[in-house]
Write a structure and sequence with these properties.
The chain has 2 domains: 183 residues, no CATH class; 94 residues, no CATH class. The longest helix has 15 residues. A 9-stranded mixed β-sheet has the order 4-3-2-5-6-10-11-1-12, with helices on both faces. A 3-stranded antiparallel β-sheet has the order 7-8-9. With 318 residues, the protein is α/β, with parallel strands linked by helices. The relative contact order is 0.18.
Length: 318
């Protein structure tokens, strides 16, 4: 397939749409894979270790726990070895790998070397960048010391709509807003240095499918806008097109193009904050509580609004 195909999409199931971070593309695509007895590798938040860890999934119940955005770096662990072992043990089956651009690039190379690329479908996610996992772990420990053990975590609760999500952690006693952590995330001070030089922030990628939020859909395709979310799906290969075509039964979708769909992280990497060095200096000198109180000025809602203005208004977000 020579040119990338672009779609705006959302799952038909309204309850599922509300539970999804954007339009439910992850669930629709993975449903197709699981229905054939195949396997998935993707990140799931571990409430004990307080980090996102890649797991091999063969059932919908476990897959459902992987749904949703995670504002932290995920840990591959031994997922490459598990994937190869599963593919060898199931020679008639195929495999879906879902991760950030850097992670899918690594798995793609590994699958090629291992001789399994033809049985693997690669889906990468439009990525703002990955913050230090150490920062989140310390932050989560602080919350649990104060409020009790975290039982549920979401960074995109859509009770106020897709364009106005909230991030919360829930214990058996209370719902805790995560505004300060989200502010730090969007301040770009805590992202990995490599994220500011990311080579995967382009339209055309070496994966089969790319998914993410379709920000700006209300401007370029207002009749398809949905307050509960719309996914962007970029199809890069024949293998990706086959998977997307099979997922259409679960989706409402519209064709789009590479001009309408442009997002900041489909154009360039997230720009490094001028405050990054001072941020980490302050962290090491003063600790996590200090930086949570002193960094980040935009709420998640404000950041999204700014992105929309810059994308749909002809500018580029920096």
């Amino acid at each position: 397939m020579s040119d990338t195909l672009v779609y705006a999409a959302r799952v038909k199931d309204r309850k599922l749409l509300v539970k999804s971070s954007s339009g439910g593309a992850f669930t629709a695509l993975s449903d197709v894979i699981l229905s054939d007895g195949n396997a998935i590798a993707c990140g799931i938040y571990n409430y004990e270790t307080k980090q996102v860890e890649f797991q091999l999934i063969t059932d919908r119940e476990t897959r459902d726990t992987a749904r949703g955005s995670k504002y932290m770096q995920s840990v591959p662990g031994n997922i490459f070895k598990k994937a190869v072992a599963w593919l060898k043990a199931n020679p008639e089956r195929s495999f879906l790998f879902i991760g950030m651009g850097c992670q899918t690039a690594g798995f793609r190379k590994f699958a090629e070397i291992s001789g399994f690329r033809n049985r693997v479908t690669l889906v990468d996610i439009i990525c703002h960048g990955s913050p230090s996992p150490m920062l989140w772990q310390e932050y989560a420990e602080h919350l649990e010391e104060k409020h009790g053990e975290i039982e549920y975590l979401t960074f995109k609760d859509k009770r106020n709509g897709w364009k106005h999500p909230i991030a919360v952690a829930i214990t058996d006693k209370v719902e805790i807003p995560l505004n300060d952590y989200v502010k730090v995330f969007y301040s770009c001070c805590a992202l990995r240095p490599a994220c500011h030089k990311c080579p995967y922030t382009t339209i055309n990628r070496n994966t089969d499918i790319t998914i993410g939020d379709y920000w700006g859909i209300d401007k370029v395709m207002p009749d398809f806008f949905d307050e509960k979310g719309v996914s962007m799906i970029l199809v890069h290969s024949d293998k990706g097109k086959e998977l997307f075509d099979r997922s259409k039964e679960f989706l409402e979708y519209r064709e789009s193009n590479t001009t309408e769909c442009l997002q900041p992280n489909l154009i360039h990497p997230t720009v490094k904050s001028e405050m990054r060095e001072k941020f980490w200096q302050d962290y090491h000198w003063h600790g996590m509580k200090y930086i949570m109180n002193n960094y980040g000025s935009a709420t998640i809602q404000g950041k999204i609004k700014n992105k929309l203005k810059k994308v749909t208004g002809g500018g580029i977000a920096h």
